[in-house]
Amino acid sequence: MSKHKTEPSSELYRLQQNMMAWLVNKDSDAVKPDVVDTGEVSKVSIDQRLAVYGNAYGYRLIDALSENYPAVHTLLGDDDFYKMTYAYMDAYPSQHFSLRYFGHQLEHFLKKYHYNIPVLSEMAQFEWALRKGFDAEDEEALTLVALQEIAIEQWGELKFIFHPSVSRLDLEWNTPQLWTAIDEETEPMPPEKLEYPYAWLLWRKELLTYYRSLDVDEAWALDTAFQGGNFSELCEGVCEWIDAEHAPSRVAGFLSQWLQDDLLVGLG
Amino acid sequence: MDKTEKIASLGFGLGLRKEHYNAILEAKPEVDWFEILTENYLVPGGKPLYFLDQICERYPVVMHGVSMSLGSYDPLDMDYLKQVKELAKRTNAKWISDHMCFTGVDGINAHDLLPLPYTDEAIKHVSQKIAQAQDYLGMQILVENASTYITYKQSAMTEWGFTKAVAEESDSLVLLDINNIFVSAYNHGFDPLVYLDGIPSERVQQHHLAGHSQYDGYIIDTHDHDIVQGVWDLYVEAIKRYGQVSVMIERDDNIPELPELMTELQMARDVFAATTQQVAKAQHV
Question: What is this structure's pTM?
Answer without folding.
Answer: 0.94
